[in-house]
Write a structure and sequence with these properties.
There is one protein chain. Helix 15 runs antiparallel to helix 16 and helix 20 packs antiparallel against helix 21. Among the domains are: 90 residues, no CATH class; 161 residues, no CATH class. The N and C termini lie far apart (84 Å). The chain is 60% helix and 1% strand. With 539 residues, it is mostly helical. The chain has 25 helices and 2 strands. The longest helix is centred in the middle third of the chain and has 24 residues. The protein has a two-stranded antiparallel ribbon with strand order 1-2.
């Protein structure tokens, strides 16, 4: 009898023996290093800054030249290759696109103090070599505008310009416990308890996060390893049956959101979130039950964030998303954490932050660690496609659409977690049509939107209303696809669906369609639509 062949040992390039259940080519330590070098600038020694190229750049007071000297420094060759750090990667760290980094490096010196401070902080430039002063406040997070936009700089605390932050309980992100609490079990519990802290939180004004303040939680989720969960030792005992009931309740709230909109579930979801946060803080449970409670809390955080976003409360939505991300991290549920980051990316792209949206999706993809299903990958790539569409990067958008369609063709619903029940080929098709509409390719957009809506499940009332309105928008635009009668008819159908919804997004889209069709009021079908829609516009 032939002797069995001995198992072949595999090693990481650092020399570490790879475990049999590790399908990759790197050990855990090298894998973390590979991820880290794509997420944030590396630590550099003090002598790094003492080169002739740096001295000339600092003397010229030109941050773009400083950035170029930083990228091409020989110190980076061993990790990033013989060309150093690319403009694309540097732009990812700065939440800018590669052409913007190129213009920043080669154009006139940028004089905006907030922008200069932001670059100095992200690249960890020593204060003694700078020609300007850094703020004394620890943790203060500046937000930079793209260099080519000649507008007033946003506030340097990472809060979206135009957000109403005059409320009594308005704080910057550097003081927000949801954002700054430690990324461990205790930090998660403290953050969610404070977020669900009754009337004081309900009265608080949450400014929308932008730039690094928005993407920082994603980085924290990626680089921190979940710690072992501790058991709750005090209070009443939480049973596994209660966790199952809570999970079923979340699933039902999702279905209510599908047919009635975020405004119909936000209050209920926030109450449930507060209840589960209280159990984690004050109840008694074993490690297994504690993990289940964290999973439920993550799902409620995502649902609260989604409902708040659908209802127009963007800053509040972001806090719930981050709280849910923390809970998913504590439960070591990487797929659900990636789902939350994808949802955050969708919100960011629609709020005019497509570069941050791309960073969020790329972080989610990096953090999945081989635990993705085709449905989840399709979800991530469709959000990625929309972010690229808003950036007007047609080739990147089309590549992401192709990846999403490839993954959705491999759907195996039995292998997917229950919270991905809504993923379907028709959803990817209508989202692809929406991306094409954003890119101005109206003829192709009309075809794809119509195809997707034809097969769209009728139980998703709010989503159907949104995509019907997108199709009406497409048919109302100039081009061979224009059909004002059809656009008005779809507008009527959209109104019929919206009448049963409590959704800020749905109403906004209807108002936009109303104003878009107003110049065509002489068309009888359009006049009928305008008459019926007038009540929605003035509400």
């Amino acid at each position: 009898m032939m002797a069995s062949r001995p198992a072949r040992h595999r090693y990481c390039r650092c020399g570490t023996h790879l475990a049999a259940d590790n399908p990759g080519r790197q050990c855990a330590r090298c894998e973390r290093s590979s991820r880290d070098k794509l997420i944030a600038p590396p630590q550099v020694p003090p002598e790094f800054w003492q080169t002739e190229q740096f001295r000339e750049a600092f003397a010229a007071q030109h941050m773009g030249r400083v950035a170029r000297a930083y990228r091409t420094h020989p110190h980076h060759y061993g990790v990033y290759g013989p060309s150093g750090i690319s403009q694309t990667l540097l732009g990812q760290w700065m939440c800018l696109r590669q052409p913007q980094v190129s213009r920043f490096e080669t154009g006139l010196p940028n004089q905006h103090l907030d922008t200069l401070q932001h670059w100095a902080r992200v690249l960890r430039i020593p204060p003694m070599v700078l020609w300007f002063r850094l703020p004394k406040e620890k943790g203060k997070c500046a937000v930079t505008e793209p260099a080519e936009r000649q507008v007033a700089e946003p506030p340097s605390n990472g809060v979206q310009p135009g957000s109403d932050t005059r409320g009594e309980h308005s704080d910057g992100p550097e003081h927000d416990p949801v954002l700054v609490a430690p990324w461990n079990h205790r930090g998660t519990v403290e953050a969610v308890v404070l977020l669900s802290g009754g009337d004081r939180v309900k009265r608080r004004v949450f400014g929308s996060l932008t730039g690094p303040a928005l993407t920082a939680p994603a980085h924290q989720w990626l680089v921190h390893e979940p710690e072992l969960l501790v058991s709750g030792l005090a209070g009443r005992r939480v049973s596994g049956k209660l966790v199952s009931r809570l999970s079923a309740m979340v699933a039902e709230l999702r279905r209510i959101d599908d047919v009635a909109g975020g405004g119909s579930v936000l209050a209920m979801a926030r109450q449930a979130f507060a209840g589960v946060a209280g159990l984690l803080d004050r109840a008694r449970y074993d490690e297994h039950t504690g993990r289940g409670l964290h999973v439920v809390l993550a799902e409620l955080g995502q649902l609260c964030g989604w409902a708040a976003y659908d209802n127009g409360h963007h800053g509040l939505a972001q806090r719930y998303f981050v709280a849910g991300l923390r809970a998913a991290h504590s439960a070591d549920d990487r797929p659900f954490g990636a789902h939350i980051l994808a949802t955050m990316a969708g919100q960011a792209a629609r709020q005019g932050q497509p570069a941050e949206a791309v960073t969020l999706v790329e972080t989610a993809l990096a953090g999945l660690r081989g635990r993705a299903t085709p449905a989840l990958l399709a979800h991530l790539h469709r959000q990625q496609a929309y972010a690229f569409a808003v950036l007007r990067d047609t080739s990147a958008c089309m590549a992401a659409i192709s990846r999403a369609r490839t993954q959705v063709e491999q759907l195996k619903p039995d292998d997917d977690p229950p919270w991905l029940y809504w993923m379907s080929p028709s959803l990817v098709v209508v989202r692809s049509g929406h991306c094409l509409l954003e890119l101005g390719q109206t003829e192709h957009a009309a075809v794809m939107l119509n195809e997707g809506i034809t097969h769209f499940c009728g139980s998703f009332v709010r989503d159907r209303q949104i995509y019907i309105t997108h199709l009406a928008d497409t048919l109302a635009r100039p081009g061979k696809q224009r059909d004002l009668d059809a656009a008005a008819g779809l507008g009527m159908e959209s109104i019929g669906l919206a009448e049963s919804l409590d959704s800020h997004r749905s109403m906004d889209l209807l108002r936009d369609l109303y104003h878009q069709l107003t110049p065509h009021a002489t068309v009888p079908a359009v006049a009928d639509f305008l008459e019926r829609a007038r009540g929605f516009v003035t509400a």
